[in-house]
Write a structure and sequence with these properties.
alpha/beta; Aspartate Aminotransferase, domain 1; Aspartate Aminotransferase, domain 2; 7-stranded mixed sheet; 4-stranded antiparallel sheet; 13 helices; globular
């Protein structure tokens, strides 16, 4: 009986069936080609290799190949081997899906949340990767500490203390695969501690709220006023055991948490044994004001600091980090599992990128580039829509553009016609918020590549009321 596999040349799973090995092999190959499992142009193993792998005579394979070449399923040329012929693929009966009509892709993208990916420092990153990989010990390629590579945790502790005022011990740093992954781990750990309710901001990212809900927690929005998020409810609602904030640069409204309110949040956490989750998503990008230090620096035993490379480098790296209070380190590490879930090579590369100074150089260059874009946005709006107010422009990679009441949806529809990807403020409002509804656009000026920035700005001005 022939073995149902082959591994010489290419991985090829075959199950010859029916009377006679040659007939069964021919039928199995024909079916694999007919249904598209073997794509046109795929090179098949030599008759000797396939025969050895299937445990059958070489002549049997050669005859099957010859028959399929004669039928037009395969091609055979001297020096290039036997390949699948270029012919239409017939899908199996009953599996044809209804035609999917794709929407036209946007020409311009001003959706916030992504930096200019074309500006990723590929050359410097590759240099850092080479240095880090050559210097790494062999055990770095093993499963590793679930908290992450010690090289990266040490580098992050030093950088965050210097640049963001975080009081970080490498033993309390946990590396995770993006902010959402970190939030998932924290949600499990908080729920295991018996927490039921997490306060969130009236405006924020719905996917983050959904992660907390998926962990079994209820999210309740705090009020929002001219000073930003108002934490007054924390002292009034005893069911709240934690709060998720963006204190350095509220997303998406753009202002920092007022200093008196920062103190209020920390006092609440100390008084009630509460936990503050600080999302410092774009702490590197400040333009017209001094950087706002991390809230975690006020009380590292009550505040979880969360940072990410998604805005400063690229979200595709899937690298983020948490600096945890001592009481949460074991619970979060246990929630993460018994081994590291982030790629060791990328962790080692980021560690080298940080310690070599390449990260600081990249951030400074990016800060200048985004500031110029911010200035161009403000100037264009002053020229084409001087009646509209722009806020949240002192920091970050996005701005909030206030619209006349009742016009947000019509502007978004006009943007769709212009093939401009754009988000309204309503997309970021918590469904239970009692804060007054505002019509506005959240403009991600950091998103387009340089060559598309001018066109995106022109398209934005065309859709404004």
């Amino acid at each position: 009986m022939a073995k149902p596999w082959a591994a010489f040349g290419v991985d090829l799973h075959l199950e010859p069936a029916g009377p006679g090995l040659r007939r069964g092999l021919t039928a199995a190959l024909r079916e694999a080609v007919r249904t598209g499992r073997l794509a046109p142009g795929t090179r098949l193993p030599s008759s000797r290799s396939l025969a050895a792998d299937l445990g059958i005579a070489r002549n049997t394979v050669a005859e099957a190949y010859a028959e399929l070449v004669a039928e037009g399923w395969l091609t055979a040329r001297q020096g290039s081997g036997t390949r699948v012929a270029d012919r239409p693929v017939i899908p199996p009966t009953g599996t044809t899906a209804p035609p999917h009509r794709e929407r036209p892709r946007p020409v311009y993208d001003l959706v916030p949340g992504t930096p200019d990916l074309a500006a990723f420092p590929r050359t410097e990153w590759l240099k850092a990767a080479r240095r880090a990989f050559l210097a790494a010990p062999n055990q770095a390629l093993g499963y590793g500490d679930p908290r992450g590579r010690p090289e990266l945790r040490t580098a992050l502790a030093g950088y965050l203390a210097r640049a963001r005022g975080v009081r970080a011990d490498p033993e309390r740093v946990v590396v995770c695969a993006g902010f959402v992954h970190g939030l998932q781990l924290l949600g499990r750990a908080l729920r295991a501690r018996g927490l039921d309710t997490v306060a969130v901001e009236s405006y924020g990212l719905p996917p983050h709220w959904k992660q907390l809900t998926a962990a079994g927690l209820t999210t309740t929005p705090l009020a929002f006023d001219e000073l930003g998020t108002n934490p007054g409810r924390l002292g009034e609602d005893r069911s709240i055991g934690a709060v998720l904030l963006t204190p350095a640069h509220q997303f998406p409204m753009g202002m920092p948490l007022h200093r008196d309110r920062r103190a209020t949040v920390v006092d609440w956490a100390r008084r009630t044994d509460g936990v503050v989750l600080e999302d410092d998503y774009d702490g590197e990008f400040r333009y017209d004001r001094q950087p706002v230090g991390a809230l975690q620096g006020l009380d590292p035993d009550r505040v979880v600091y969360l940072g990410t490379a998604s805005k400063s480098l690229a979200p595709g790296l899937r690298l983020a980090w948490m600096v945890l209070p001592p009481t949460l380190v074991d619970a979060v590490t246990e929630a993460k599992g018994g081994s590291d879930t982030c790629g060791a090579v990328d962790q080692l590369t980021l560690a080298e990128f940080l310690t070599s100074g390449a990260y600081d150089r990249h951030v400074r260059a990016a800060r200048l580039r985004y500031r110029r874009r911010r200035d161009a946005l403000v100037q264009a709006l002053a020229t084409h829509a001087p009646h509209l107010q722009v806020t949240g422009i002192a920091a970050g990679l996005h701005a909030v553009l206030r619209l006349p009441p009742g016009t947000e949806q019509s502007v978004l529809q006009a943007a769709t016609w212009q093939r401009l990807a754009l988000h309204g403020l309503s997309a970021y409002r918590h469904e239970s918020s009692t804060t007054e509804r505002l019509d506005a656009l959240v403009v991600g000026y950091g998103t387009p590549p340089d060559h598309a920035w001018a066109g995106a700005l022109e398209a934005l001005c065309r859709v404004l009321p």
